[in-house]
Amino acid sequence: MEQKQLIRQYCQQFNMSGISKSLDNLITEAESQAQGYLDYTLSFLSTEATFRLQRDITKKMKLAGLPKYCDLINYDHNVSNGLTITRLHQLQELHWMDQIYNIILMGPSGTGKTFISAGLCAEAVKKGYKAYFRTIDSLINTLKMKEITNTAKAEYKRLLQAHLVVIDDIMLFPVEKKEAVSMFNFINQIYEKTSFIITTNKKPAEWAQMLGDEVLATALLDRLLFQCEVISLSGKSYRLENRKTIFED
């Protein structure tokens, strides 16, 4: 018992939480399999490495700001929204990110835009990319407050260093001129080194109306559409088709 306590003290000293938490299992496994010194050492280090990797992913997932239930493993392939299983799998491979390509998911509410974009963002985080999911409202608020609060300043710096930024529900509501200019400046600053996923229920031709400025809308779309795959989703709302009831039959 004293030896275990001493090992855990060393683990705490060297910040090796993975080994400390799994120590009993590691010892039991080593004894049952009569592991040699090399196998035992490798098992120790592998446990710590796996623990740190999972901890890092968990932290990045939290920073990504993902909505709940966004794992594409749970994607309902019976949904008829125009996106085939093959194309979804191609999107999941993320080769388009390595080419600094953008994705625009366009279609009516409930056709899976948010779920798909969040799922792709989660895939990117798991594969080691700096990826963030933000609603248009939260992004505009960050741009508005970045010179005022440290929190917004840190968030803005984080987004500038991103490999992928998801902007959800862009153009859902009209955007004021000042906010639209800030959004353009942000996208203009990083679009050559960062991929975007944009979800919207408005066609590009309608963006000028929502921004109230045709020149600004054209400049914004010019950057987003330069290397971009526009995916039009269709069909009925998945939420309305699968809504729950509080009543029993």
Please provide a written account of the structure.
This protein has helices spanning 2-13, 17-32, 37-64, 85-92, 95-98, 113-126, 136-145, 150-160, 177-190, 204-211, 214-224, 238-241; strands at residues 102-106, 131-135, 164-168, 195-200, 228-232. The chain has 249 residues and is α/β, with parallel strands linked by helices. The chain folds into two domains: 2-64, no CATH class; 72-241, Rossmann fold (3-Layer(aba) Sandwich). Helix 9 links the parallel strand 3 and strand 4. The longest helix has 28 residues, at 37-64. The mean pLDDT is 85.
List the helices and strands and how they pair.
Layout (H helix, E strand, L loop, with lengths): L1 H12 L3 H16 L4 H28 L20 H8 L2 H4 L3 E5 L6 H14 L4 E5 H10 L4 H11 L3 E5 L8 H14 L4 E6 L3 H8 L2 H11 L3 E5 L5 H4 L8
Parallel strand pairs: 1-4, 1-5, 2-3, 3-4
Reported for the largest beta sheet, the result is: 5 strands, parallel
Per the CATH scheme, the topology name of the largest domain is Rossmann fold
CATH architecture of the largest domain: 3-Layer(aba) Sandwich
Structural category is alpha/beta
Uncertain spans, ≥5 residues at pLDDT below 50? none
Intertermini distance:
60 Å
Name the CATH superfamily assignment of the largest domain: P-loop containing nucleotide triphosphate hydrolases
- Series of H and E elements: HHHHHEHEHHEHEHHEH
Strand arrangement, major sheet: 2-3-4-1-5
Overall domain count: 2
Envelope shape: elongated
> Beta-sheet strand percentage?
5-15%
Give the CATH level 1 class of the largest domain: Alpha Beta
The overall strand count is 5
